[in-house]
Design a protein that fits this description.
Blueprint lengths: L8 H6 L17 H15 L7 E2 L1 H7 L4 H14 L2 E4 L3 E4 L4 H25 L2 H9 L4 H7 L2 H18 L3 H18 L8 H19 L3 H11 L16
Antiparallel strand pairs: 1-3, 2-3
Length: 243
């Protein structure tokens, strides 16, 4: 299988609107601070900004060709999500990869995310359900080339869309940062995944969109549980959307 590309232009485009999908309406996708946040977020998840690395605001501003204000806003939000650590006099560093925190976050997602899928089946518009499905429009091409940034971006957008479509922004604000944290770990599962396994992952996500669009709350809940690898019949290997 081809080696994952960490510089995919498609991923940089796909990841847009993840911030706004959290229900934080002041983070419009058109705002520069949102774009900076999303670019830093994807680099954190992909490990291009590695755990424990010190983040210098001026260096980041140069890296992302933006102003210091946008970088500071982005780091402030990432600190609230627990993805970076900010300390007085010692600066900002990338948060460590904490397995205990991962396990606890996964337990929280298992409780919250299937419920959000069930709520989305009741509240999502047809356009919202179709948008969830369309997130993976280029999924086959990404799976064929093992385009890691594109696959990560698709997954982030999908789970954010489900959370927002639940109609409960309080749950969305809790769930999406948990998804972001989990993504820092499950990117490693791509390295051993075959093209067929990735295609199966994509199909499972599309199935969630289908049953949400079909207004079936129980089927939506069960389909999301399968993505999270909870159902007994689900495979035991890590899923794209699971911790």
């Amino acid at each position: 299988m081809a080696s994952p590309s960490l510089k995919s232009p498609a991923a940089r485009t796909l990841v847009l609107d993840v911030a706004n999908s959290s229900g934080l309406e002041d983070w419009s996708p058109d705002l520069q601070k949102t774009k900076v946040y999303e670019r830093i977020l994807l680099d954190l998840i992909l490990g291009e900004l590695s755990a424990g690395a010190r983040l210098d605001e001026q260096s980041l501003a140069a890296r992302y060709d933006t102003g210091l204000a946008g970088v500071r806003d982005a780091l402030g939000r990432l600190a609230l999500e627990g993805l970076v650590v900010r300390r007085a006099r010692s600066g900002t560093t990338v948060a460590p990869l904490d397995l205990v925190e991962l396990r606890q976050g996964y337990e929280a997602r298992v409780l919250i995310e299937p419920h959000c899928a069930s709520l989305a089946a009741k509240n999502a518009s047809k356009a919202e359900a179709q948008a969830m499905y369309d997130v993976f429009a280029d999924g086959e091409a990404a799976a064929r080339t093992c385009d890691l940034p594109a696959l990560v971006a698709m997954d982030l957008r999908f789970h954010a869309a489900v959370a927002r479509a639940s109609g409960n922004l309080a749950l969305a604000r809790i769930l999406i940062p948990l998804q972001h944290k989990a993504a820092r770990f499950w990117v490693f599962s791509f390295n051993g995944a075959t093209e067929q396994e990735l295609l199966e992952e994509i199909e499972e996500h599309r199935q969630v969109a289908r049953v949400i669009g079909g207004r079936d709350p129980d089927a939506s809940r069960q389909a999301m549980l399968k993505i999270l690898n909870v159902q007994p019949e689900a495979q035991t290997r890590p899923h794209v959307g699971a911790a």
